[in-house]
Amino acid sequence: MQFERWWRRIWQRNSVRLVVALASGAVFPVAFAPFNIWPVAVLALLVLHQILHRAQGTWQIIAVCFLFAIGKFGVGAYWIFVSLVSYAEVHLSVAIGLFVTFLVLTGTLFTVLAFFTTNSRNTTLNALVFASGLTVVEVLFSLPWPLSFPWLHLGYALIDTPLKIFAPMGGVWAVSFLGAFTAAALSHSVIGRWHALVVAVVVWCPGLFLSVSPSVDSEATSVALVQGNVPLADKWEKDGWRNSLVKYIWLTEMSPRTDLIVWPESAVPVDAYALEEDIFNAVQNFDGHLVFGALESRKLAGRSAVYNVVASVDQDGFNFFRKERLVPFGEYIPLRNVLGRFLQPVGYPMSSLTPSTSVQALPRVGDLTLGPAICYEVAYPNLVRKRVSNADLIVVLSEDSWLGNTTGPWQHLQVARMRALELNRPLVRATNDGVTATIDANGLVQNQLSRYREDVLVDSVLLPQDTTFFARFGLLPIALLIVIVLLVQLISQRSNPPQNT
Description:
18 helices
């Protein structure tokens, strides 16, 4: 009782609540790669839950959520600022302005969680509503709208915990939901209410004893992932693509023969049609099927269009799979007619790639059907799910050099691991300077290359054919769960008016 009184006194101070909310959000990213201290995320949400239930009034609840998000994305996505200043060569003042705008937008969206704050006397229901709110926020961040940012979801931090067994059922959102429920349950236990924590323990227990493994009769395929480590300044200079092409061909010819060869995103940053002769000559020597990143220029409705593509090579020529989800401010400018008037005068690089909007056939190489994802696309669970439902292997081509020596590339690898786990498909990830890796259908890294070195990762991956619940139904299971929780909460509020806890 004395501890509970002391605990209540702490949270009665408004300034303390706001500062602690910001600090909790700032430590939240330590749970993610490369640090992987996942309990930090649960504890940060425990503190957030405590603050929300001590806050006074709607506006303070909103302020708490906003500040938590500022801390979370300010620390967890600082690599955006590094990319703008160090690689896009944006003026410091412009980079600061863009990054602050990003934080304000993400913080504003995160305040949706404020509408899921309830003082229900039923601690289990209270924890379920909190978990629903966090999951709704993550889903909103994952929708295909121009300023979405499907990054730093709680479930990614928990991929190496017993909760991972729920990813094939409801994707990263299911893992996030149960992780947030656990944090709220622990929050209630701090002041002596244990019912929700008992439920959380029951949820965690199956993962301690169960695991999902590829079928013993799964076929295997060999892959060679080529990491060229070509500096961005050299790669994107006028004729830099020629040196990149020579390096990638040389590295491939020096490696053992495999069923599939993968070069990274924009490995040769030029119109792929300019490469036909060189690529076809090289493929004859590879004895393997090549997939590589390049650009495609074409006329679209009388206008020039440039696509970021995965090019696969067969006897009939090139087949292209075009990128659908472009990186805002990196590959295109959202609301270009409006924002361009402010950005162009200050020297911001006005990228203008074109996103694919048509239905595309999945690339086939030999007997393999590939589920491709180009860089940032792998962070969209539903996008990858739709592509991989009929594919044997997830192939990710990425260029993480823009993120520099930050936590960004490691977070990106962690996201890719979740896609493999959700869909029960192995994933191969080729990057220019790391992290190049092979990931099995359980989301575990089989092998990887060190960053900043030119090398080829040769490995063999099993190709299980089982389809997961998430692959079939996507967002539907977790959406139904949230709807049920909110209906129960609504009924509970009408029959039993809430009391302060």
